[in-house]
Write a structure and sequence with these properties.
This protein is mainly alpha-helical. The protein folds into 2 domains: 243 residues, Orthogonal Bundle (Fic-like fold), CATH 1.10.3290.10; 69 residues, Winged helix-like DNA-binding domain superfamily/Winged helix DNA-binding domain (Arc Repressor Mutant, subunit A, Orthogonal Bundle), CATH 1.10.10. The chain has a 3-stranded antiparallel β-sheet with strand order 3-5-4. The protein has a two-stranded antiparallel ribbon with strand order 1-2. Strand 1 and strand 2 form a beta hairpin. Helix 2 packs across helix 4, helix 4 runs antiparallel to helix 5 and helix 4 runs parallel beside helix 8. The chain is elongated. It starts with 24 loop residues before the first helix and ends with a helix. The structure holds adenosine-5'-triphosphate (ATP) and magnesium ion (MG). Magnesium ion (MG) binds next to loops.
Length: 360
């Protein structure tokens, strides 16, 4: 196999890599640690009175981190503010599209297996337009700082489709490879195929979460995986390239397993912090307003850090006046802040927002 950075890598080998044990002892040890951390996360999720809290919040944080790898920088605050409308500045809209793509992907794999078509659907959702495999040659991956070309993906729509078909077979192969190792290997391959003109990194990172769900290691997309990647972004780029240049599969797999372990642990810590914040606010809300004894009202306050009167009306089945008085009582008590966005009145649960936005 001859490889050079500037030449399209049409000889990208199929999976699994030949003649290589993907699961030496160090890898097996790391899979045990990562799986333990995932199991702890699943248990921690059940500690929350309302599991929707995580399903609402974590994918937004994941969207923010994953988009930031592509230098689409927005804040958690902006994202939560605009989540119901999909508005906001360009970066906010793009990160919200990542979240939609993640949700669309999860919904899709609930009814059919993850395939190359799923990948195209995810990428289309991300990009806000129909995406198909690259037909035009010339795509190059450059080092974001030096601009030096580090990799040229395979070219030709037919060849790309063949490689995706092989990737797909590997994703669902009936062998005894650990699902986390499979996810790691498939992620490299997907990025090396680089099937689309743009959005391959983000599509690949959505697929990671989907593979964990398909494998039964995660039930909902509540793993904040891209934060672990962005924290070690240089390693991410360096190790992807080292698989191509030096067949350094084991280093790559170990890196991915560490990222899973770290992000599962940090998501677990975040759940602990959310729970503490939730208990504290529930207690203070009980004193401040009759609404504080309404379980649905407390749920609404923690599903999104920005809350609308209309949502309280709908969910708690109370009049607009009651909803408004409950919310304003919490403003009086310092638990919420009133903010106006355009013509809309929102109530921000700032303590909860702070817990969500900080790194654990
Ligand atoms: N040497 C490499 N070999 C294979 N894939 C690589 C290499 N370097 C980077 N990549 C992948 O390419 C992705 C960037 O491709 P692309 O711009 O299509 O995706 P994106 O989603 O728009 O960007 P980003 O991943 O930066 O958010 C990186 O995230 C990484 O996953
Ligand atoms: Mg890009």
């Amino acid at each position: 196999m001859v490889w050079s950075a500037g030449t399209p890598f049409n000889d990208l080998p199929p999976l699994p890599p030949r003649g290589l044990d993907l699961e030496p002892k160090v890898v097996l040890k790391a899979t045990v640690e990562a799986r333990t951390a995932l199991a702890t996360l699943a248990q921690a999720g059940q500690l929350l009175p309302n599991p929707n809290v995580l399903i609402h919040a974590v994918p937004i944080l994941e969207a923010q981190a994953s988009s930031e790898i592509e230098n689409i920088v927005t804040t958690a605050d902006e994202l939560f503010k605009h989540v119901d409308t999909g508005e906001g500045d360009h970066a906010t809209k793009e990160a919200l599209r990542y979240r939609s793509a993640l949700f669309a992907g999860v919904e899709s794999i609930r009814s059919r297996p993850l395939t190359a078509r799923t990948a195209a659907a995810i990428c289309s959702e991300l990009q806000g337009r129909e995406m198909d495999v690259r037909a035009v040659p010339g795509t190059r991956i450059a080092n974001p700082t030096t601009r030096e070309v580090v990799y040229a993906p395979p070219e030709g729509a037919g060849l790309i489709r063949e490689k995706l078909a092989d990737w797909e077979r590997f994703v669902h192969a009936q062998d005894d490879l650990d699902p986390l190792v499979r996810m790691s290997v498939a992620h490299y391959q997907f990025e090396a195929i680089h099937p689309f003109h743009d959005g391959n990194g983000r599509t690949g990172r959505v697929i990671n979460i989907l593979m964990l769900i398909e494998a039964g290691l995660l039930h909902d997309p509540i793993l904040y995986l891209s934060r672990g990647i962005i924290a070690r972004k240089n390693d991410y780029y360096r190790l992807l390239r080292a698989v191509t240049a030096e067949v350094a599969w084991i280093e790559w797999i170990l890196y991915m397993l560490e990222v899973v372990e770290e992000s599962a642990s940090s998501t677990t810590r975040k759940i602990g912090a959310i729970k503490a914040c939730q208990d504290d606010i529930a207690e203070r809300a009980r004193v401040a307003t009759p609404g504080g004894r309404d379980a649905q009202f407390l749920n609404v306050l923690f599903e999104q850090p920005y809350c609308r009167i209309g949502t309280v009306v709908e969910r708690c089945e109370v009049s607009r006046q009651t909803a408004s008085s409950w919310l304003h009582a919490l403003v009086e008590a310092g638990l919420l802040r009133e903010v106006k966005i355009g013509r809309e009145l929102l109530f921000v649960n700032h303590e909860f927002l702070e817990v969500l936005a900080r790194s654990e």
